[in-house]
Amino acid sequence: MRKLLNTLFVTQPDTYLSLDGDNIVLKKNKEVLGRVPLHNLESVITFGYTGASPALMGYCAEKNISIVFLNQNGKFRARVIGNSRGNVTLRKEQYRISDDEEKSARIASNFIIGKLYNSKWIIERTTRDYPLRVNVDKFKKSSKQITELLKEVRQCLDLDLLRGLEGQAALSYNSVVNDMILQQKENFYFTFRSRRPPLDNVNAMLSFAYTLLANDTTSALETVGLDAYIGFLHRDRPGRASLALDLMEELRGVYADRFVLSLVNKKVMNKNDFVQKENGAILMTEDGRKKFLQAWQKKKQEKITHPFLGDKITWGLVPYAQALLLARYIRGDIDEYPPFLWK
Fold it and tell me: At which positions is Mn(2+) bound (predicted)?
């Protein structure tokens, strides 16, 4: 159980939610795990739920407190709300911003700032932790290039130019990714990003990690009442969760990339976890996917201090914290969307 930005996160599995007066009561096997006053909550988000009492759902609907049900992996199931005036207002403003390229660019630039900042931090941390195992000059050159691009991104309010700057930074960052692979070099290497299909073991893992992260950010956005399919950096395309792709940009490197590198360098994954198809595509085996997912779930339970909020949360709640902050910015509660700047 975790309270964050007037939102109660219930992360314990098999927890039943009920009402007692003006309080929400959390029970597991009839044992009371906690009791929280409802009067200052905006929403309740529960992972892997057993259920919620009709009395609680009716109370929350009347008080305009949403209850969101996710499975244990964070996939969106359903949301119980009363009058939808809050979400309607929020989404209408989201659509207005999306239709205005300059306003979209103001938010998009912060997504890119987060991505570049975190990419730079990953590079700098590698040189700090492994100065005798990597080419420090090469890493410092890449870091310097990203720093210069960060300065340009901060001043940019043109979406096409932002995408170009992000692309340049990605090339600089990708140029040192292979050097971050310190173990099993004969079977794990990164030359360039290949997606459809992935052509090596590392790209196969990156694609899977990005898919999982995109699912998490989509659920997070739906949870706070935003439309995951209407983006600011990624423009509208049928079937694409554009805002989820926007939000995950700042988390790709620091969350997904570092996770994949750790699986290789700690020898959690090995060459036997992959198979090559006739068209050259590399896929994970069933056992490989199982190991990957187990490690991903473990990663989501690791605790960190959120750099903007200052609260201790798990990695798995980071997309939800960012979605909440984005919703608050769109509603006008805060002056600027704060990207996730991890160090």
Answer: 166, 234, 249
How many domains are contained in the chain? 2
24 DSSP β-pair partners: 19, 36
Distance CA 304, CA 274 (A): 31
Q: What is the pLDDT of residues 196-245, one digit of tens each?
A: 888 999 999 999 899 889 888 988 898 888 999 999 999 888 778 899 99
Residues 169 and 281 in one domain: yes
The whole-angstrom separation of Cα 286 and Cα 139 is 36
Q: Is 207 left (phi over 0), alpha (psi -120 to 50) or beta?
A: alpha
Residue 239, C-beta contacts closer than 8 angstroms, at least 6 positions apart: none
CATH number at residue 27: 3.100.10.20
Q: Would you say residue 338 lies in a domain?
A: no
pTM of the model: 0.80
Question: Where is the binding site for Mn(2+), in residues?
Answer: 166, 234, 249
Tokens of 250: 């700042």
Domain boundary among 54, 84, 114: 84
